[in-house]
Design goal:
single chain, 416 residues, alpha/beta, Molybdenum Cofactor Biosythetic Enzyme, Chain A, Alpha-Beta Plaits, Maf protein, 6-stranded mixed beta sheet, 14 helices, 25% strand
Amino acid sequence: MRAEVLAVGTELLIGDVVNGNAATIGRLLTDAGVEVVRSTAVADDEPTIAEALHMALTRADAVLVTGGLGPTQDDLTREALALAAGVPLLRDESLADALLARYEGLGRRVPAMNLRQAELPEGATAIPNPKGTAPGVRMELNAGVVYALPGVPHEMHAMLVESVLPDLLSLADAPAAIVSRTLHTAGMWESAVAEALSDLHERLASTPGAPTLAWLAGKGQTRVRVTARAATREAALGLISPVEAEIRSTLGIALWGVDDETLPGVIHGLLLAGGQTIAVAESLTGGLLGAALTSTPGSSATFRGGVTAYSSELKTSLLGASLEEGAVSASTARAMAAGVRERLGSSFGLALTGVAGPEEQEGQPPGTVHVAVAGPSGSDARLLRLPGDRDRVRQLAVTSALDLLRRHLLGGQADR
C-alpha cells in the first residue's frame, strides 16, 4: 500500500504555519506498514487541489488530505474533490442535523456558513470527527481512495487513528510492518558518520530485503536511522538488530542513545546511577546549558544549579578564574568548571566560554569556544571551532559541552 500526503493551505506555502500534520501522518502511516511516497502542499485553489489529487493518484493507492474543510470561503477541499470527480456537492441532512445539535449543546447559534461543512461530493462518505465540527471525507477516485481530514492537528490525529488507518489497512493486500530505529551520535560530523558506516551501507544496499540506512544531522548531532520492512513488527526488529549491533561497534562512544532518548536524559541517568551531581558555569550560552540539563523530569536529583558569568569580572569574583590567558581560553574554562563545582558543592562542574559572534573578541573569531569539565579525577577541556551564526554557535556549544560531560562520565576520551 502506497500513500501520499497532500496539505492544503496557502498559509503553509508562505511560512505562516509549519506543516506538522505531514510529519504526524507520515509517522503513523509508516508505523502501520503503509509506504509514504510523497508529501506536498498546495494553495487554497480549487483547480490546483483537484490537479494535485489526480497526480497523486497516479503514484499512490491512497491520498490523505489535510486542511480546507472549514466553513469559510477559502476552505475549498470539498469543492476540489467534487471537481476532481466531476460530481456535484450535495447536502447531507444527517450531517446538518448533527452540526445543529452540536452547536445547540454549546448554547450557540449555527452561522449559515457553517452548514457548508454538511456538504459532500456525490458518492463520498463522511469521516466522523470526535473532536470538532468538520467531518472528514472519504471518496474513491481514479482507482484509489482519498481521505480528507481537517487541518486542526488534534482533530486530524483522532480521525486518522480511529477511522482512516483501520479502513486503509483493510484495503491493503498484505499488511506489512515498516519499523525504524534511530541511533543518536555526538562529536562526529555527518560526513564522518557516513564514512565510518560506508561499508555497512554498501552491503545493505546490495542485499535485497535488507534494512536501509539514512543520516539525519542537526544541532551538533547526527542520527543514523535504520529502517526495515517485514511481515510483522517483530520480524522487522529482527532484521534491524544485527545492523544496530554493528553500528554500535563501529561508532563506539560517539553513539549515546536510541529513538526518543535525549542527551540530557542520558546524562541524568548516568549521574543518577553514580549518585552524582552536576553544576554549570556558562558565559556565551547565557543559561542554555543549564536549561538543557533541567529539561529532563527529575533532574533536580542530579542538577545542583548554575552560574551565568557573562562578564569577565564575574568569572573572577564568582568562579575564581584568573583570566591570565584571557576570558576565552582553556585555562579560564577549566577554572570556571572547578570554581562552580566547589562553590555549588557538586560532583562535577561543566563550563563554557567563547565567542558566539558576530564580532571577534580578544582576537578570537566567532565560533571559538572552550568547554571544560572538572570532577573528582581531574579536569578535561576541549577547544571548538564552531560554524554558523550566533544562534547556531550557541546551540552547538551546548551539545558539545553535554557530550564532553557524557564521555567523561563514561571514562572515555574526548575523541574517538
